[in-house]
Design a protein that fits this description.
heterodimer, A: alpha+beta, two-stranded antiparallel ribbon, 6 helices, B: alpha+beta, eight-stranded mixed sheet, 42% strand, flat, binds zinc ion
Chain lengths: 355, 311
């Protein structure tokens, strides 16, 4: 892989311009040494002259209808090349969920732990980008430092920041808030190439199935993943395809880096309170790996209502999701509080009258 | 016929039937005898570079005409009413020569940043009985603090026209092009279409591009300013690492005649996105009548109000 000469970002296959700074990727130009002349493009099937047809975005022969093959812009739906292995197996995930259900607190139904019916265990490898880059970041902000009559004074500065292993979620199955709850607990040093299976509990031969697939593949793959889970192994754990095409992905990644930069510059702003933080980044040497992150998606049912919980694929103690509330208990407590307030009010009233 | 020195004419023979074809400011030509689309193949020269990139047409003449007619139908009430009977004298899809520019921009700026604060002030007023009394109110004031600093960033996707026939301002009106769809140039992408030759030199285009880059930096700086408001923003931008690459962009050019006594006006359509840039001629008669009517209404209102105040 070659790197962009302006910003040192690796150039990917099919890129005509650098993804970060838009510098065109140089190509070896075939020198035309012949004398200038007119040329026509001939149909490979019938040798008639062909013209570019916008409908097919390629030259098409008006006589025989054949379409000429030309290079098309590359904008694929991305797939993960790396993954973080599952450490938590199905039994552990189930046990974690049971434990979590038992600790839903006072307002959860008492029978939740025992009566909840697990309906599906889906091992999911959700898609995300792992980004590394360095950047010169110029910032401006208002802070309380050096303020005069107004509570705010403007400040500006420039810092150099390194962005190390920033995970940007690109999952279709989990929402990005759920991903952010999982991200801090992954051991990124364990990353392996997709297709490698060693060292994983119950890993079958044809583990990580990569979906080169587009929209809709999700449902089919989910079914497959469920069957796999029924077998008690992580065979067929679904590796998600990303939620955006490459060109859109780059924008998402860059916006994410800017948001991170906005938080990171805060320590460089003088003062204790600040607002209106703006950043301008000059990114260099950005590498973006496409990584699949393991998680168990568990669907359970309690008294005919479906709930969903997520168990981290590497740390069984990280569990979150939705759970039922016992409304009778809540009503009772509310009533109790109201009664207590009434009693106190009555006491105060009597005390005042007596005094 | 006057051919500008920057749009050279060369003659080549049709590769299918051998007829002599004149390429006048263009690099493609459809043979009038055998209808074959010819393309000039030649070594690139400084004034006649080979395009590096190409954005292709998204639709055919029908596609362009539909958009044009929709645009014509939606003109404002002040447009010349002769437009309703306007005729398209000429329409053509042209691969327009342009330059694609990008650079690293570093800017030093200074500005006055306005920060709000509130003050309580006292004022005297007269109540209904005619007694004066003192009251207080809070007012928001702004203090201006100087700020200077640096701004950095890549400026990318700047496109300027390299055609002497279509000024850059006219191209700017139909921008942007979706450069995610940009392709490496190949004669296969322009075969059968008009590929106009480059008729503005690279240096001039680079200067124009820099101007657009500095404008872009200005737009970013205005969003970059902290505070509740700002004033006196000035900046000096230096560009490094400039790249300038010849490319082709698709445009439809319509020549529209709407009155016998007026020259036709030009409407340009972005051949990729369908965005239209063109100014429909206005009817000065309509505008004058509207102004006179508006003044008459204002005068009437003033008169009535005045009448109402008479005892
Ligand atoms: Zn670059
Ligand atoms: Zn011919």
């Amino acid at each position: 892989m070659t790197a962009c000469s302006r910003c040192a970002t690796p150039v990917e296959d099919g890129d005509l311009r650098c993804a970060i700074c838009a510098l065109p990727v140089p190509i070896a130009v075939a020198a035309v040494s012949r004398a200038p002349r007119a040329q026509i493009l001939r149909c490979t099937d019938c040798a008639a002259a062909v013209a570019f047809d916008p409908a097919v975005q390629a030259p098409r022969c008006a006589f025989c209808g054949a379409t000429m093959k030309v290079e098309h812009p590359v904008d694929p739906i991305e797939t993960a090349q790396l993954r973080i292995p599952f450490i938590v197996d199905r039994e552990t995930a189930t046990a974690s969920l049971r434990g979590w259900l038992g600790k839903r607190g006072f307002f959860a139904p008492k029978t939740l732990r025992d009566e909840a019916v697990l309906e599906s265990f889906t091992p999911l490898c959700w898609a995300g980008w792992l980004v590394n880059a360095t950047a010169a970041v110029a910032w401006t902000a208002d802070s309380d430092a050096d303020s005069h009559r107004s509570a705010w004074a403007p400040h500006a500065g420039q810092v150099s920041l390194g962005f190390h292993n920033i995970v940007v979620p690109a999952s279709r199955g989990l929402d990005h808030g759920e991903c952010r709850l999982l991200i801090p607990y992954y051991d990124l040093s364990q990353v392996v190439a997709v297709g490698r299976v060693d060292g994983e509990p119950h890993a079958g031969p044809a583990d990580a199935r990569v979906d080169g697939a587009m929209d809709g593949a999700m449902d089919g793959a989910m079914d497959g993943a469920m069957d796999g889970a029924m077998d008690g192994a992580m065979d067929g754990a679904m590796i998600e395809s990303f939620d955006a095409q490459r060109s859109a992905a780059r924008k998402q990644v860059q916006e994410s880096i800017e948001l991170t930069a906005k938080v990171r510059v805060e320590e460089h702003i003088p003062g204790r309170r600040f607002r209106n933080v703006h950043v301008a980044c000059l990114l260099e040497g950005q590498t973006t790996d496409r990584v699949a992150f393991p998680a168990w998606v568990l669907a359970y049912r309690y008294r005919d209502v479906a709930y969903r919980a997520i168990v981290h694929g590497q740390r069984p103690e990280v569990v979150f999701g939705s759970s039922p509330k016992d409304w009778k208990k809540i009503a009772l407590v509310m009533f109790g509080i109201a009664a207590l307030i009434a009693v106190i009010a009555a006491i105060v009233w009597f005390a005042r009258r007596g005094g | 016929m006057v051919v500008s020195e920057r749009a050279p004419t060369s003659t080549f023979s049709c590769q299918r039937c051998g007829a002599s074809l004149a390429f006048e400011g263009v690099r493609t030509q459809t043979c009038p005898y055998c209808a074959s689309p010819n393309f000039v193949e030649r070594p690139p020269a400084a004034d006649q570079p080979d395009p590096a990139f190409c954005v292709t047409f998204a639709g055919d003449a029908e596609w362009a005409r539909t958009r044009f007619e929709r645009w014509l139908g939606s003109r404002s009430m002040f447009a010349d009413s002769a437009l309703k009977r306007a005729t398209v004298e000429d329409m053509r899809g042209v691969y327009l020569p342009a330059y694609l520019y990008s650079a690293v921009a570093r800017s030093d700026y200074t500005a006055q940043i306005g920060e709000h604060y509130t003050e309580t002030e006292t004022y005297t007023t007269t109540d209904a009985q005619g007694n004066s009394k003192t009251e207080t109110r809070t007012v928001t004031r702004t203090e201006y603090r100087p700020l200077s600093g640096r701004h950095i960033g890549y400026v990318t996707d700047v496109i300027v026209s390299a055609s002497a026939g279509l000024p850059n301002e006219e191209l700017a009106r139909v921008e942007p092009f979706d450069l995610r769809q940009v392709r490496r140039f190949s004669p296969a992408l322009v075969s059968g279409w008009i590929h106009e030759e480059f008729s503005r030199d690279a240096d001039a285009c680079k200067r124009m591009s820099r101007g657009e880059a500095v404008d872009e930096v200005g737009a970013r700086l205005r969003r970059f300013m902290p505070g509740d408001s700002y004033s006196d923003l000035v900046w000096r931008t230096t560009v490094e690492w400039e790249s300038l690459d010849p490319m082709l962009v698709p445009v439809w050019v319509f020549a529209v005649r709407y009155r016998e006594d007026k020259p036709p006006f030009r409407v340009v359509i972005n051949g990729q996105t369908g965005r239209i840039g063109g100014r429909a001629p206005l009817s000065w008669l309509k505008i004058t009548i509207a102004c006179v009517l508006a003044l008459a209404v204002i005068a009437a209102v003033i008169y009535l109000v005045h009448q109402g105040q008479q005892p």
